[in-house]
């Protein structure tokens, strides 16, 4: 659970930052080599996410495992330089995330920041990376503004965004007859963007939004919000949240009998770990979208097996897969450039090199920083349909890369001419 204690004052904020850095910094995977008494140049990357709060299972320690796997699979060196890895917990607070990032860039020699779930944190970190000419590769953060009005020459948005989630799920459900919606969204940048993008997709598909309500991040009791959705008479209650917030909403909706009464519950962002926490008895029949699923093909199954062996038997979701694939592509770009020190130049190389990895397949990084690849619509299996651990999804549809994300011209990114 997220700590609720309010902190104030310069000393306490400083203590929180020091604690976040001290408690979560990981030992470097590869020690810098010494030659003639001088430390050799290295490439240093940092995983920044929520490691103990409401989004810890969504990204958390699993993203660190994925980054370690990418470094190992690349060979531990890039352009002759050893690769180092650190990690920190941003506690879902933008000020902590920005301050950790600033210290990483200014003092600790970090060249690129990975993952960054929580869109408010991701937007702040993207701004710092631009100021410092470093790189940020977003896997966990969702707001489509990262490749829209807030796009940056130093940021790549890899795994998913609110536009892709809204269009993959919202459009399909609306066209299937769920044409009236009520939204229950988390009240920060991610929830706002998801609600906005979903509303546009639903209306374009012929649907209507009957109402919306927002709740703070980490709200444990969502009963009043769910009852408002039930009272609205909407055919669909859309959950514009992630992690523990979505899990709590689905559990409590089941307790109220909302689905049994005839309304459909749709998670606009839910991943494999969430279904594991809910159990198939509760989650069965949910529609959701992920960019990756471990059981899609032999390559995804091989990755998942290795990941689970390193992660206590827990399987990867799309955020973990995005950290792995995004880091591999970054290292290919550093290899091409020959150095990691000019962040904008490395991102230019990431855009110039076609993406091709075992988890997402072939794709590209567009001028706005959006990595494009297929997205998938799934339905959660019933307990009787599941054949083993983490066998949770039935593939309903695959949206091809050129259709899965917002059209380049529609995002209003200043980098797009």
Automatic annotation (TrEMBL):
<feature type="signal peptide">
    <location>
        <begin position="1"/>
        <end position="35"/>
    </location>
</feature>
<keyword id="KW-0732">Signal</keyword>
<dbReference type="InterPro" id="IPR051010">
    <property type="entry name" value="BCAA_transport"/>
</dbReference>
<keyword id="KW-0029">Amino-acid transport</keyword>
<keyword id="KW-0813">Transport</keyword>
<protein>
    <submittedName>
        <fullName>ABC transporter substrate-binding protein</fullName>
    </submittedName>
</protein>
<dbReference type="InterPro" id="IPR028081">
    <property type="entry name" value="Leu-bd"/>
</dbReference>
<comment type="similarity">
    <text>Belongs to the leucine-binding protein family.</text>
</comment>
<dbReference type="Pfam" id="PF13458">
    <property type="entry name" value="Peripla_BP_6"/>
</dbReference>
<feature type="domain" description="Leucine-binding protein">
    <location>
        <begin position="42"/>
        <end position="381"/>
    </location>
</feature>
<dbReference type="GO" id="GO:0006865">
    <property type="term" value="P:amino acid transport"/>
</dbReference>
<dbReference type="InterPro" id="IPR028082">
    <property type="entry name" value="Peripla_BP_I"/>
</dbReference>
